[in-house]
Amino acid sequence: MNSERKDPMPRRTTKDCILAYLAARPNEVAFVRSEFAQCAKSRSAVDRALRALIDEEVLVRGGWGIYVRAKRVEFLGREYVGTVTGFDYWYPEVLAKLGVTWEADSARKAYNEGHTTQVPAWTAVNVGRQRITRRIAFGKRVLQYERTTGARRRKVRPTSASRRQRATSTPS
Q1: What mean pLDDT value characterizes the chain?
Q2: Is residue 139 part of a domain?
Q3: What is the DSSP secondary structure assignment for residue 146, as one 8-state letter?
Q4: Is residue 141 part of a domain?
Q5: Statement: residue 85 has pLDDT above 80
Q6: Which residues pair with 71 in a beta bridge?
Q7: What is the pLDDT of residue 150?
Q8: Residue 45 has pLDDT above 80, yes or no
Q9: For 5-54, what is the HEC assignment?
Q10: Whole-model pTM above 0.90?
Q11: Where does this protein have compositionally biased stretches of type Polar residues (predicted)?
């Protein structure tokens, strides 16, 4: 009898599973690490596969637990690995996958509304009161968070001088 048995279905590796996941989503550019959790039983196996894909220049890291599709780019006669799209195009996708609602920061709003001609030099979003500290970055571009919820009304308590003035003035 033949001791060598050919498996009709070869085993699918974690890396193959991640590549199939990426191929099934051609319109998505950024991915969160938790999306690949179903590809392996252990977290370390997924991490090893992701590191291998980074080494093969299929993905690049876009922050803590964030991976972005990669491509080889030539710029000023030098080759490097960059993202398929620019930073401004994939960070909204990451924020949506993390469940963060956001809007433009105050500097960008002021520029878009014509209140200033100064173009914002950084990338920032207003997340309101949501708690997010995850670093989303690629190269020197880092997403910064602005935590404003608009004008808040405070009860203004009268000062002692204004109370005395009201007490001394009599209505006529």
Answers
A1: 84
A2: yes
A3: E
A4: yes
A5: yes
A6: 82
A7: 58
A8: yes
A9: CCCCCCCCCHHHHHHHHHHHCCCCCEEEHHHHHHHCCCHHHHHHHHHHHH
A10: no
A11: 159-172
